[in-house]
Each structure stands twice: as C-alpha cells, then as structure tokens.
Amino acid sequence: MTSAQRAAGLAALLVAGLLGAVTATPALLAPAAAAPAVAFGDCPEGAVPAGRGVQCAVVDVPRNYADPDGATIELTVSRIPADGQKRGVIAANPGGPGADALDYWARRIDAFPAAFKQYDRIAVQPRGMRWSTPLDCAVKPTGAEPAPAGVKEIALRPRDDMRATCEAALPGYLDTITTESTARDLDAVRAALGVERLDYLGTSYGTYLGAVYATLFPEHTGRMVLDSNVNPGWVWTEEFAQQQVAGKQRLDDLFAWIAEHDGEYGLGNTPLQVYRNWVRLVADQGGGWYANLTPPPAAVSDLPGALPEPLAEIARDGFNGSVEQIGKVQNLTRTLVAGGTSAQVPLLGATTVATYTRAFWPNFARAMSDANADPRNIGKLLALEGASSSDPTGQVVFTAITCNENAVEPRPELIAVAAGTIASGGSAMEARANLVRAGMNCGSWRPVAKPVAVDGAALRTPPLLLQSRYDALTAYEGGPALARAVHGKLIVVDGGDHGTFGRGNGAVDGAVVRYLETGEVGIDRAEQAPLP
Fold first, then answer.
1. What is the CA radius of gyration of the chain?
2. I need a labelling partner for 489 at 20 to 30 A (CA). Which of 201, 322, 377, 532 fits?
3. Res 301: pLDDT
4. Would you tell me the crossing angle of helices 346-354 and 361-373 to the nearest 10 degrees?
5. Do residues 505 and 529 touch, judged by C-beta distance below 8 A?
C-alpha cells in the first residue's frame, strides 16, 4: 500500500485493474515444459547492489493483454538462485505502486531468515518503470515558487498534462498501467521461466497485487505471504484518506516516544512540547503550513500560520465549483497529500520515513535533536529522508495505477468541509482526508479499468497475512478485509510498523518460515519488533 511518500510531511501516500475480465492468452497458459529459455546475466547499471549474486533477464510480454498478438514491452527480472537443494521459486513485490523491485532480495539478504536461501528469489520490475519499458511523461514544473535553500524541489505534475504527454510518447501504453496488467506480467514471467507455481511475498501495494494475481491465476499460485495490507474495498481514494487518520495516530506515538526519552534528545518531556519544537523547526526550514497538525491534545491556538489559499477563499466565500477554484484546490491537494510537494523540507521528509517503522525512531529523534541544537546540522535528516526516494517513473506509475483504476467516486462537496475544518482549528489530518475523498488527487483523470474483484476461494493453500495494529500507511482494517477476501489467515502484530517481516521479530519471522515450509500458521498475534 508508497504512502505520499511525498505527502506534506506525513505518511507517504501510497495509492492502483485493466480491461475487466480478459481471457488469458495461450502463451500464458502453455505447459511449463514448452516455455522458452530465459537468459540471465548482468543487471542494468545501478539497479541492484554489487556482490549479492543477483542476475537479471529481459522478458517480452504483450503491451495490452486484450491484444495479445500486438505490440510488446520488455520487463526486467532479477533472480538470486537458490543455494543447494531448491525448495521452489518465490516472487516479491515491495509495494508502491511505483517502487523499484529488482533490488528487493539483494537488500534483504541479511535481514531475512536463512530458509529463504532454499528458493530461487525473483522480482519483476513493474511495467512503466525504468528498466521495464518506462513511461515517458516528462512535464515541466508549473506554479511552484523557487524553494528556499535546503528545501527539496519536487515538480508538481498537472494530471492532465502528464496524461497527454504520456499518451503522445507511446499511444495506448498509459491505459495498460494497472494492477491487473502487472499481475498478468508476473504470470507471463512465470511461464517464461518454466515454473508451474510461484510462491509470493508482497508488502503494502504488493499485497493487493498478490491478491489480484491469486484471483486471476489460482492454479499457478503457491504459498503467499501478504504483509501490511491494502483494503480491497478502499481502492484507491479511501485507502489514501484512511492514511491521514492512521498517520496522525502514528505521529502522536512518535512524539510520545521522543518525550519519554527527553533526557537523551532534549526535545521536550511531553508529546505537546515535542510537537511544538517540531513545528518550529519545520517552519524555520520553510515548511510553512505543512506543519499545521492538530497535536495531542491541542486547540486552534496551537495551529501556526495562516490558512492557505484557496482554502481561505473557500472558508470565506464558500465552494462554488468553478474550474478555476477546483484547479487551485487540485494543486494544493497534490502538495498536501500526494506525490509532489514544492516545499518538502528535510524534517518533513524524515518525519514521513519515521512513520514507516519504529526502527527509525532513534535515528529520527537524534537527527531532530541535532537540527534543534544547530539549524544548519541537517545531514542526518537528509540521510533519513533519502530512504524513501524514488525514480520519477515510479511517481508516474503511482499516479497511473491509482487514477486508471480508482473505484471510489469523487465527492467535491467535501472541499468545503475540509476548509471549514481547518478554519475552525480542527484536525488538519481530517481536512486532508476529506480533500482526498473530494477526488482532487486525480482531478479529471477518470478510470479506464475496473479493479479485479479479489477472491482466494480457489487457492489450494490459504495465504498468510501480517498486519500491524497501528500501521500508518495501510490502516489496520486492510488486514482483516483482505484476509476475508482471499480466505487467508491473519496474524495481528502490535505496534505500527509498515512491513512487519524481516525486522528482527522472531515470532513473525518464524511464523512466515513455518508457513512457507508447511502451509500451516500457528499463531494469530505477535508483539511488535524490538528496537535495534
């Protein structure tokens, strides 16, 4: 479920089905023995860490599965071969949508249990991204003021301009960037590799992709681990609106933890004191209104700065629904809750990363403490912010998937509700949630596909699902909801880590290994991972 990862200082917003029910082509369903050989060799420069034994190959697949004999695209696949006797082949997707996949296994060799070395570990770089027939949708920034020194510039990409540019570069390709197409790509790779059945590990958006794959290809689905789950009933607008609520709770938890360790970090001995220091630092770095959060417990007097336009206009004069007014709100919404802010200052970027997992909290607190002592000392903040960086093609893929298959109708009347919430001193996170529900993220970009109705009834082994109780990026309700849809078994993990497997949590890691080896799940709850 990438979060914006570029959200205005809080949970990165992750947000992604093709042409309805399309009959699989004979090539996809051909016997494994008839599959052509795939030649693995060197990986693209910069795609994977060196010295980890990663090999890469290119597989051609249909650009549009409704036209299987038409144009093709190239997908790059990475593989780390099994050590010794091979148990099977396991594919992985890290989420997003729009996250690079080729380096997934290489970066986690030391974190994952040794049992994974018994598998060929593969990852398919999703279509539309670099190294897999990338989308070419370059759009010049518009409406963004020059950023102050130290402020990260990210181009605001008007959705209509982006769509037009993509379409002009490769007509018809953009409309195929959906979860269903990506799932069909995975099965095409499976067939090309001559593998009868894939095991699977998916995180965040990767859980939804895995569930769609299992729905379309149950006969080729082995054991499936889904970690930090997208709610299939929220695709996609409500998924991102819920992130605002969950992100607020996790930020409160972070401030409370820092307050408990005031002796070490000196940022305040109550959550409110930590929050006020955070707001001051964000404002000093140029973050402005992005710091306007309602903290625990606080009132209107705690909210810094003035209400931004056009929300001030709407709060004053009401929402009139004009093209000009909607355009202004769309720009503001993208700045606040989607993939491109023009004032993503270092502390906001680092805060976003810190909401992902508790393992980042000590580093974040130390980085904030350093900046508090010396505003020029932002090296640790920049390093932490960089943990969520992504290639520009990934940002476009994120938009394409989430707008191409968004199943939630926009509610523009909620723009006025959001403006009123902020003007009256209410929670800015609740206001952001309503801006998302208003449909401003995609604007006039209407869906071209219906999401696949997820159903795991035909699977031979029920999937294993892992879900943190206070996950800031994929809210808790996604775990039970997806478990019901795929007829899976859910382990609820305490705390709020986004991605619970491979974090040094013995109970969770042991349960995953047992499931992959036996198909059995022995627990339904686990403590959160310890701090390193």
1. 23
2. 532
3. 41
4. 160
5. yes
Beta bridge partners of 229: 204
101: which 2 tokens?
A: 């996949």
Look at residue 403 in the predicted model and tell me its pLDDT.
Answer: 94
Which residues are registered as beta bridge partners of 227? Answer: 203, 466
322 CB burial (10 A radius; 0-12, 13-18, 19+)? exposed
Report the alpha-carbon distance of residue 317 to residue 342 in Å, rounded: 27
Q: Cβ contacts of residue 386 below 8 Å, gap of 6+?
A: none
- Answer yes or no: are the C-beta atoms of 485 and 211 closer than 8 Å: yes
Distance separating the N- and C-terminal Cα atoms of the chain: 25
User: What percent helix, strand, coil does the chain show, rounded to 5?
Assistant: 40, 10, 45
Task: Give the pLDDT band of residue 305 (cuts 50, 70, 90).
Answer: very low
Taking Cα atoms as reference points, which of 7, 1, 145 lies closest to residue 441?
7
* Bond prior to 97 in cis (omega within 30° of 0): yes
Burial of 424 (0-12, 13-18, 19+ CB in 10 A): exposed
Helices (H), ranges, 286-345: 311-317, 323-337
Strand (E) or helix (H) holding 433: helix 428-437
Residues in contact with 23: Cβ distance below 8 Å, sequence separation at least 6, in sequence order: none
Q: How far is CA 131 from the centre of its chain?
A: 19
What's the pLDDT tens digit per position in 375-393?
Answer: 999 999 999 988 877 788 9
Q: H/E/C letters for each residue in 162-201? A: HHHHHHHHCCCCHHHCCHHHHHHHHHHHHHHHCCCCEEEE
Angle (nearest 5°) at CA 42 between 39 and 47: 120
- Residue 290 is classified by DSSP as G
User: What digits encode the pLDDT tens for the residues 151-162?
Assistant: 333 334 567 788
Q: What is the mean pLDDT of residues 195-202?
A: 98
| pLDDT above 70 (res 333) | no
pLDDT tens for each residue of 498-519: 999 999 999 999 999 999 999 9
Measure CA 472 to chain center: 11
User: Between the CA of residue 483 and those of 126, 224, 236, 489, what are the distances in Å?
Assistant: 24, 12, 18, 6
Find tokens 């680092």 and name the residue: 350
Instruction: Measure Cα distances from 391 to 100, 347, 397 in Å.
Output: 8, 21, 10
> Residue 429: in which H helix or E strand, if any?
helix 428-437
Assign 247 to helix, strand or coil.
Answer: helix
Helices (H), 288-407: 311-317, 323-337, 346-354, 361-373, 379-385, 392-404
Q: What is the pLDDT of residue 293?
A: 58
Q: How many of the other CB atoms lie within 10 Å of CB of 427?
A: 19
**Range in 173-182, 217-226, 337-346 with the lowest mean pLDDT:** 337-346
- The helix-helix angle for 361-373 and 237-260 (nearest 10°) equals 70
Q: Phi/psi of residue 225, each to 5°?
A: -110, 120
* Residue 423 contacts residue 315 (beta carbons within 8 Å): yes
